[in-house]
Amino acid sequence: MDIKYVQTTCPYCGTGCTLNLVVKDGKVVGTAPYHRSPVNEGKVCPKGTYAHEFVNREDRLSKPLIKKNGEFVEASWDEAYALIAEKFKGYKPSEMAVLSSARTSNEENYALMKFARGVLKTKHIDHCARLCHASTVAGLAAAFGSGAMTNSIGDIAESKCVFIIGSNTFEQHPLIGRRVMQAKKNGGKLIVFDPRYTPTAKQADLYASFYSGADVAIFNGLMGEIIRNGWEAKDWIAKRCDLERYEELKAKVLEPAYSLENVSKISGISVEDLKTAAEWIGTAESAAVLYSMGITQHTVGVDNVKSTANLQMLCGNIGIPGGGVNALRGQNNVQGACDMGALPVVFTGYQKVTDPAAHKKFEDAWGFPDGICPPENGYEVTIMINVLADNPGELKAMYIMGENPLLSDPDLTHVEKAFANLEFLVVQDIFLTETAELADVVLPATCYAEKNGTQTSTERRVQMWRKAQEPPGEAKVDWQIISEIAAKMGYAAQFPYQSAEDIFNEIAEVTPSYHGMNYERLNKPEALHWPCPDVDHPGTPILHCEKCAHPHGKGMFHALEWKPPAEVPDAEYPYILTTGRCIWHWHTGSMTRRSETLDNEVPTGWIEINTEDAKDLGIANKEMVRAITRRGEVEVPAMVTDDIKKGEMFMPFHFKECAANRLTNNALDPGAKIPEFKACAIKVEKIQEAE
Ligand code: SF4
User: Fold this and answer.
1) Over the stretch 457-498, which tens digit does the pLDDT of each residue have?
2) Does ligand 1 lie within 6 Å of residue 37's CB atom?
3) What's 177-210 look like in SS3?
């Protein structure tokens, strides 16, 4: 019996824990702790513990599939490539769109980004960051000049006050939750604001529930109180910030609309709790804000993110240990997929596609004899879906790698209508997902355990995946599939890669923030945080220490007005629905629902209903109910609990049989084009027995 341990990075959340895969006779059979990781020090959450269980499932895709007469038929790679190349060559660039993947490696995202812009010559490329942290990228870039988590995960343990809003950290990023507990142990205070009394909230020194969508009002209220008490960091602001912007902010937050009494009415948080939170944040030696999709997934997502930056600049908590704006990114490599330019407005390292110099740089570096896509912004995924649904014929073909919009995107009826209008769909994945079922061609790809590569965690740490076993059947690594399609379409010279490392070296060449990285440097437990501009640079765990990343170096405040969600409760739909995840499952469940242990723990979804609301509705715990919004309805078991605010309801979105996104609203933030998953109006009905 041959047993070996292969050190790799967890494929689930953006924390980026390192673990060992246990490989027996060439097959991954378990996980084991890897103690030298500075991120998780040998600990993992349940998803990491069982990250091996889906790897060798019998339903892994192992051969290309081509749909003929409505049925999938196994095909050779040559047949699949020939069909794809023929079809793609038949469309104009503007008729094709590409979705890259936050689940795959940096190298694969880079290869697909290059394929979209260089081979298909389309400007329409995006990925699921649009659905989780597009507002972070836009909001933090506007405030600081760089759209990423400012501090490191380990640094959170140093904080004297941790303010968590819009994040159920202990369930979604459990190993970051561990650092929060270390901060508490070190004497730091923990404030949690959340509509639900989550496991995170249960650890708080100060917890307050609030109505989803009140965030800007809450931040303005806190900042007004801090300024009225003189707790703002006057010297820091004078030295580090644009002062005109500061005066605008000050005037705004001191308006009567943001008095604590008024903010209390908007948010449902008591004046006393708002005062306490303002004092703890305003007087702490260091305070860290942690947020996630409770902040970002709103029609005012960018404003919410800018508000977190406002508060932290006001208190001088930027560029210091234990401080920062810590946007906890969702998927394992959503940071990396953004860094790799799998977005419609940037090349790698956020070099703008509309910048003529950046466009020329990539055109020259890639050497496509017939050029690349024009220097114009493309469609975001949410806009792609709208265009497909509302303007049939404008977009005709799509290539999707490792994404599942048929469960992850809002208003699924609308998404289904959109996909029905596609002429040709290629899906590359490891399982036959809800989206793959609609494809014309399905390409079997490899999972994290079957390839080398890198991923970039939420703290901008670039870490390695290491191959532990061979892929199933004829499945191939994603970058190899992309390169082979490119070759079939006449661009073999532009995709000459023999390994993931070859691609990484090209990434480092064209990406200033990755320029000093290479596999030798990354192949260490601590890896490297970007920016890492040259090979002698140690990486940058904390951003903006001396100045912000804007060319002028100043932090930019934004005076913001609170606006309610796009859809608020009314007589017909009297409750607020918010959505999220649970600790046992991940995203659309394509991997966790195929992991026996995780699926046994939580085999289906639910809707959380406040005990008083349930009494009013005559609904008992565990009873099947009908949840209805203006967009659709689902039948789902009720979970009656005091752990959710009266008037609010919550559903996890992992479960296709009671899909929360059948109900959610696809109203978008006007800048980031992120949908408002976190607030819409809902009603719930008993299911009558006679039905
Ligand atoms: Fe994996 Fe995230 Fe859990 Fe760490 S915290 S083991 S990265 S899912």
Assistant:
1) 999 999 999 999 999 999 999 999 999 999 999 999 999 999
2) no
3) HHHHHHHHHCCCEEEEECCECCCCHHHCCEEECC
Q: Percent of the chain beyond pLDDT 70?
A: 100
Question: What sign does the dihedral 679-685-686-688 (CA atoms) show?
Answer: negative
Q: What per-residue confidence (pLDDT) applies to 588?
A: 84
Ligand 1 contact via 153 beta carbon (within 6 Å): no
User: Whats the size of the chain, residue-wise?
Assistant: 691
Report the nearest-CA residue for atom 2 of ligand 1. Answer: 13
* CA pair distance 111, 107, nearest whole angstrom: 6
C-alpha 488/C-alpha 476 separation (Å) is 16
Residue of 8, 17, 43, 290 best suited for mutating to test ligand 1, as the one with most atoms within 8 Å of CB: 17
Helix (H) or strand (E) holding 326: strand 325-327
Tell me: pLDDT of 689 over 80.
Answer: no
Confidence at residue 420, expressed as pLDDT on a 0 to 100 scale: 96
> Which residue's structure tokens are 């009140």?
214
The predicted-structure confidence for 562-596, as pLDDT tens digits, reads as follows 999 999 999 999 999 999 988 999 888 889 998 99
Query: Left if phi > 0, otherwise alpha if psi is -120 to 50, otherwise beta: which for 156?
Result: alpha
The yes or no reply on domain 134-327 and CATH 1.10.3720.10 is no
What CATH architecture is 575-690? Beta Barrel (2.40)
* pLDDT band at 92; cut points 50, 70, 90: very high
Cβ(15) – ligand 1 distance below 6 Å = yes
Q: Which residues contact 399 (CB under 8 A, 6 or more apart)?
A: 88, 96, 97, 98, 99, 112, 116, 120, 426, 428
Closest C-alpha among 199, 174, 181, 136 to residue 326 = 136
For residue 436, give every residue at least 6 positions away whose Cβ sits within 8 Å of its Cβ, in sequence order, or none: 61, 404, 427, 429, 442
User: 623 exposed, middle or buried (CB, 10 Å; 0-12, 13-18, 19+)?
Assistant: middle
CA of 286 to the centre of ligand 1 (A): 26
Tokens standing for 419? 């996909």
Q: Where are the domains of the chain?
A: 102-131+332-529, 134-327, 575-690
- Which one-letter amino acid corresponds to residue 226? I
Q: Check if 10 has its Cβ closer than 6 Å to any atom of ligand 1.
A: yes
- Partners of residue 74 on adjacent β-strands: 65
Q: Assess contact for 187 and 160: CB atoms under 8 A.
A: yes
Ligand 1 neighbour 12 (Cβ under 6 A): yes
User: Does ligand 1 have an atom closer than 6 angstroms to the CB of 45?
Assistant: yes
Ligand 1: residue whose CA is nearest its atom 4:
17
> CB of 491 within 8 A of CB of 366?
no
**DSSP H or E segment with residue 609:** strand 607-610
Overall average pLDDT of the 140-147 stretch: 92
What is the CATH code of the structural domain delimited by 102-131+332-529? 3.40.50.740
Mutation choice for ligand 1 from 34, 37, 44, CB with most ligand atoms inside 8 A: 44
pLDDT digit string, tens, across residues 204-243: 999 999 998 999 999 999 999 999 999 999 999 999 999 9
